[in-house]
Specification:
Largest sheet: 6 strands, parallel
CATH architecture of the largest domain: 3-Layer(aba) Sandwich
CATH superfamily of the largest domain: HUPs
Number of helices: 10
Radius of gyration: 19 Å
Order of helices and strands: EHEHEHEHHHEHEHHHEEEE
Shape: globular
Helix content: 25-40%
Number of strands: 10
Strand content: 15-25%
Length: 280
Amino acid sequence: MGLPIVRTVADLRAEVSQWRKDGLSVGLVPTMGALHEGHLTLVRTALETCDRVVVTLFVNPKQFGPNEDYGTYPRTEEEDATKLAGAGAHLLYAPDVAEMYGEDGGATTVMVSGLGDVLEGEFRPGFFNGVATVVTKLLLQALPDRAFFGEKDYQQLNVIKRFVRDLDIPVDIQGVATVREADGLAMSSRNAYLNFEERDIAPTLYRTISEVSERFKVGGKAEALSKWAAQQLLDAGFQKVDYVLIRHADDLTQEAVKGEPIRVLAAAFLGKARLIDNVG
């Protein structure tokens, strides 16, 4: 039997309501589809603490800019559903845009000032407004006990934790460590855009930011390390580097302070792919 799929808020809530009546806990794994081992790890992690796991599949138009890849973003629902069934998920929620935002597109936007304006927010204006809005809706539509997000999108995870706290949404947000290929490349649906040569170059991103972290810990200067890292990536074959920055891990709006938790975050273009990654 295949994985059950629901496409409306009413049907989703009916399923979750029945689980609640049976005394079962519920985990939520939001995705945009084109699933890989990183997504399946989120499902398996959710199953460790939740009786039932809902996976959402929705390519969210509100988080794509006008010149980004909304139209070409990979959509593989049938294959995704098969993978999710194998990982042990209990339900796939796959609404269309009208179900998510209404026929008029919706008039409400969730914004996280400060944290949502730096790093990715600077280079992709409006991106986190789209993320915060759709995740707020997904959390309220499903009302799970816990929701699981990968640390590859570290800033996104922090944005979600912030608005959940600010809006008193009764869901426990849990981050899950980045899942990587054997050569260190962070798993991402957009890795499918890489050709053979670019795929060989791509792990340079992880190696470079790991080196930045090590050098910072032994006294390297943040600004000099950022410039060094950007040049390393360009020399390796990346076409453009949006940023390589060292930030305070608990507040990405603040510069890193030696002796306190840090996060090295990077975004760079390689062929048709814009790759992001981070290390502690």
